[in-house]
Amino acid sequence: MYDVIVVGARCAGSPTAMLLARQGHRVLVLDRASFPSDTVSTHYLHQTALLRLQDWGLLDTIVNAGTPAIRRMHFSFQGIELNGFAEPVNGVDAVYCPRRTLLDDTLVTGARKAGAEVVENFSVSDLLFEDGRVVGVRGRENKGPERELRARVVVGADGFHSTVARRVGARTYNVRPSANFIYYSYYRGLDWGLHHKTGFNRRWIGTWPTNDDLTMLAVICNRSHLKEFRQDPEQQFLATFDDVVPEMGKELREKGERVEPFRPMRNPDNYYRTAYGPGWALVGDAGYHKDPLTGWGMADAFLHAEMLADRLHEGLSGERPMDEALADYATTRDEESESVYDFTCTLAELDLPPFFRATLGAIGQSQKWTDTMLGIIAGTVHGDEIFSPEGLQRLYDETGVPEEERVYDPTA
Fold first, then answer.
1. For the whole model, what pTM was predicted?
2. Angstrom distance (rounded) from CA 8 to CA 353
3. Where is 62: in which H helix or E strand?
4. Per-residue pLDDT of the chain (412 residues; tens, 9 = 90+)
5. Sign of the dihedral through C-alpha 31, 33, 36, 41
6. 8 Å CB contact between 124 and 138
7. Alpha-carbon distance 373 to 368, whole Å?
8. Which strands, in side-by-side order, build the sheet including 288-289?
9. Which partner for 86 in 14, 77, 121, 374 could form a disulfide, CB atoms 3.0-4.6 Å apart?
10. DSSP letter string, 251-312
11. Are 71 and 85 a contacting pair, CB within 8 Å?
């Protein structure tokens, strides 16, 4: 009998298990994959995510593996340039974009070292219920016999298509249709650093240095472009760079060498799912997903894993009733993620509304305000520094925006 069974061992599951095991709980982690292994990902770790890795004692593993440090960002939104870097926090003065083969293996190893039992190549087929409460899982390791494993709480950290979420009937809410799809791959011969650029034709390009002297290149396009992409991914990928940043498109054709196949992903809709119920909880993409454009998926997975582990510990240790602790987790998760969710869904349309055209245009006129905005994007500066009424007033005043060009209503 385990205290907690965690289904899924990647960015949300392993941290949840690790933190609970460090507090003395008996934890089992199950994943259908083996590690190290790859998965679809944007790789980007904001400073707030790196602060979690640093606190958990895992950041040095990522850095010492030769993951390139990025200390300057190049953002562009339909001609509005934001180039700079957020202020360092607690010694974290760079961002990193590790391959998931490295990151996930580091997290799984961290969970094991903390005392969690990790079983790879284990497929969960169903949950066990007693009197309406989840009491365990059913599944098999490799092609072995089916087994039943029991726990006080089962955590679903098993992604978009979560078996746990499906079997408990977790309700989705605040659903916003996905506007985009993504293609990405890895290239040699480019030394571009980090770029995040939205063009005028509902197309976007991104570049991130990653491990093994490779650069990850990605394009995100409106779904109206999907048919032509499927017909000729290579040509459409290059054409997107040509369209958004012509000089980068030219250099990509002349110097870039693609070393892995394209990875396409049609993004699922943005959603929240009910975060908990009798004997179960959801974390990571199993419980909350948004467009990858802002690169906040892994950061939120870390933050919510830590939040959930704290609440589970309170329930398991008797500090408060488990259902009360998990209800607190659900409320806090939704409240603290709301602004990032709204911001991401807005930018994912790849067409700036008047409010963001006015504010980002003003921000781009000042290095101080640019670095503040990059701090908000990094999760180390509160959004009210700019987007409160007082912050907007200071922004517009200091950058000399005429009264008739100022926009204060985010819905405008």
1. 0.96
2. 38
3. helix 59-64
4. 999 999 999 999 999 999 999 999 999 999 999 999 999 998 999 999 999 999 999 999 999 999 999 999 999 999 999 999 999 999 999 999 999 999 999 999 999 999 999 999 999 999 999 999 999 999 999 999 999 999 999 999 999 999 999 999 999 999 999 989 999 999 999 999 999 999 998 999 999 999 999 999 999 999 998 999 999 999 999 999 999 999 999 999 999 999 999 999 988 999 999 999 999 999 999 999 999 999 999 999 999 999 999 999 999 999 999 999 999 999 999 999 999 999 999 999 999 999 999 999 999 999 999 999 999 999 999 999 999 999 999 999 999 999 999 999 988 8
5. negative
6. yes
7. 9
8. 172-176, 270-273, 288-289
9. 374
10. HHHHH-EE-S--EEEEPPPEEEE--EETTEEE-GGGTEE--GGG--HHHHHHHHHHHHHHHH
11. yes
DSSP 329: H
Q: Please give the single-letter amino acid code of residue 288.
A: Y
Q: How far apart are alpha carbons 135 and 5 in whole angstroms?
A: 10
Q: How many residues does the chain have?
A: 412
According to DSSP, residue 69 is labeled P
Tokens of 301: 């997975």
Cis ω on the peptide bond leading into residue 88 (within 30° of 0)?
Answer: no
Q: Which residue's entry shows tokens 């092609």?
A: 143
